[in-house]
Design a protein that fits this description.
The chain is about 30% helix and about 15% strand. Strands 1, 2, 3, 4, 5, 6 and 7 form a seven-stranded mixed sheet that branches. The longest helix has 12 residues.
């Protein structure tokens, strides 16, 4: 399905699940082709840590090249998002368990969390693209809280390695455009919990 997000301002907020970045940047390319204006936001860790999945400088350059906008890297830089009504929708992709738990408990001590807090004050949608090793552990209660929080929506997610990491769950990033489209109209894409074999059945 083709999506037309012409004139829509979409924030893409990166947190530190670096192993998912390749898929997130592919999704970013797809979103850029919908006509949306994209605004990247990075947590301090996402913008400064180099890992075996790539270095922070290259990730920032990719974000600049794909979006045409300078990434927001600080809490003061993220705070005006709400007062200036800068976005139609904000996506946290990937959203780590750390960010998820802080969001569920009203903590805003990173640029991404400040962006979320500032954006939500305008009653506009926030989409979470989950990536955490403890989704079925300590963070399960936080997922439950956010699933029942006004204006928060989830990209469908499932267990990525139930044998080696039974508590781990990640979002199916290929469903991000459909999730955004429905969230903009106030609806949660269903089903929310989806196995890898079932992802082609949605739509």
């Amino acid at each position: 399905m083709d999506y037309d997000f012409q004139n829509k301002k979409i924030g893409i907020a990166f947190t530190g699940s670096f192993c998912t970045y390749a898929k997130i940047f592919e999704a970013l390319k797809d979103l850029a082709e919908t006509g949306a204006s994209l605004y990247p936001i990075f947590s301090e860790h996402a913008s400064s840590i180099d890992t075996r999945f790539g270095n922070s400088h290259d990730f920032l350059e990719q974000a600049r090249a794909l979006t045409g906008n300078e990434p927001i890297l600080t809490i003061p830089g993220a705070e005006p998002i709400g007062p200036k009504a800068m976005l139609d929708i904000l996506v946290i992709a990937p959203c780590t368990g750390n960010t998820l738990s802080k969001l569920a408990n009203g903590i805003s001590d990173t640029p991404v969390l400040m962006a979320a807090k500032s954006h939500l004050r305008n009653n506009k949608p926030l989409v979470i693209s989950l990536s955490t090793n403890d989704a079925l552990g300590m963070n399960l209660k936080n997922i439950g809280i956010l699933l029942n929080t006004k204006n928060i929506y989830f990209v469908p997610f499932g267990q990525d390695n139930y044998k080696a990491k039974p508590n781990s769950m990640v979002a199916h990033v290929n469903l991000l455009p459909e999730t955004i489209s429905l969230a903009l109209s106030g609806s949660q894409i269903q089903p929310v919990i989806v196995s890898h074999l079932e992802t082609t059945k949605i739509s």
